[in-house]
């Protein structure tokens, strides 16, 4: 039997760079670029969607603002068109924040944008549920009062204008 004598000089492990390592690194970089591009496209789409929501809310409000006064908006401070414009502006601001975060490769900004968009989504679901559960009673309470006083010429003109413009 031989006796094993360890050598006094230790050799450092040699890192061999292989073609497999290069392929894995290139594949990872490609995946990262693809994810970044998808984030940029999604956030840019959300910016456009937020802008469209904001413009839609403003245009509906400007077109039907006389009807909001007719329906008694003194009791109704937040109309659906104002709410749509507000949510659209918040969506646009948050999406711009996410676009800048994905452009600058900031994980914090992208995560904060995703969290805020999730909260905004749940807020929209709650608003829709509340709107559909209470809107019927509010509409009838606003319409019953003007119909009872239809003999007033000013109210009569407003009701006739409402019927003419909404039916077209």
Automatic annotation (TrEMBL):
One GO cellular component term: membrane
Main location, first listed in the record: membrane
Keyword DNA damage appears in the UniProt entry: no
Origin species: Spodoptera exigua
Cellular location(s): Membrane
Regions crossing the membrane: 35-61, 81-100, 112-132
Stated name of the protein: Tetraspanin
InterPro entries to which the protein is assigned, alphabetical: Tetraspanin/Peripherin
